[in-house]
Write a structure and sequence with these properties.
DNA polymerase, domain 1, elongated, 6-stranded parallel beta sheet, 258 residues, alpha/beta
Length: 258
């Protein structure tokens, strides 16, 4: 294994299909709200607004953000329509939000094969956001924990977590890659500390995670293409990243910049 070359992976919607679980819960929630007489489109809009507000208010992707947004949305429409709140209904709606943390996300196609190929060639690190107890349980149940030399969980992913990883592992940013589905949480914080980024777009990425890229990065369509990407970049010498950058426009259709 090349201990001085690292790939930092995101978990949710990069290796496992997570957002679809939240989307299913949103649909279930909206169905109940519509049965109560509230308008579907307005409910989705308000729910999304409170969900984003909670991430900012609580300081990260904590488990309470989603169910709390569902209760607040119900309270908002009760107030708007001058309807008395029902405690049983509030508990039922909140339960929809809590259940997403009990459902195990499916592995994305090619995840196990990719990590099996990379393990032993790079030091693999996992950096994900959320509550440590919840995320670590989900990672263990996914069966992917065995591929990673280290796991980091933070409420939000900023450049600070990547600086910490660089310092803890004693490697320069030029010998590190970050792979993830979010420009906001994965790619831009990595670019801010000089780490190369590989973006894997996910069709269900939450709009909160979407922002313009801060610099040049690579884009691949799926994990199979990512495997091919790294197969052409096996770490052999200290100058490997400089040579890889020179391939831009020649071999990589997915390279993206500002």
């Amino acid at each position: 294994m090349s201990d001085n070359h690292i790939i930092i992976f995101d978990f949710d919607d990069t290796l496992v299909d997570t957002t679809v679980i939240f989307e299913k819960a949103r649909r279930q929630y909206v169905e109940q709200m519509v049965e109560l007489g509230f308008p579907e489109e307005a409910v989705l809009e308000v729910l999304d607004r409170y969900d984003v507000e909670n991430v900012k208010k609580f300081g990260g992707f904590y488990t309470r953000c989603f169910p709390d947004a569902m209760v607040r949305t119900y309270q908002y429409f009760c107030s708007l329509t001058e309807r008395e709140e029902n405690e049983r209904i509030k508990q039922s709606l909140a339960a929809i939000g809590w259940q997403v943390y009990e459902e195990e996300p499916a592995l994305l196609k090619g995840a196990r094969e990719l990590l099996g190929f990379l393990q032993g060639r790079w030091r693999l690190v996992l950096a994900t956001k959320g509550e440590p107890a919840v995320q670590l349980r989900r990672i263990q149940r996914s069966g992917l924990l065995k591929y990673f030399a280290a796991v980091y969980v933070a409420p939000l992913k900023t450049s600070g977590i990547y600086r910490h990883i660089l310092q803890e592992h004693g490697v320069p940013p030029q010998q590190v890659w970050v792979v993830g589905n979010s420009i906001k949480s994965d790619i831009n914080p990595a670019l801010a500390v000089g780490i190369a980024g590989v973006h894997i777009p996910h069709p269900c990425t939450w709009h909160y995670e979407i922002e313009p890229p801060a610099g040049e990065h690579y884009v691949v369509r799926d994990l199979a293409e990512l495997k091919e990407f790294f197969a052409r970049r096996l770490p052999r010498s200290r100058g490997w990243w400089g040579r890889a950058k020179k391939e831009v426009g020649k071999n990589e259709k997915g390279f993206a910049g500002n």
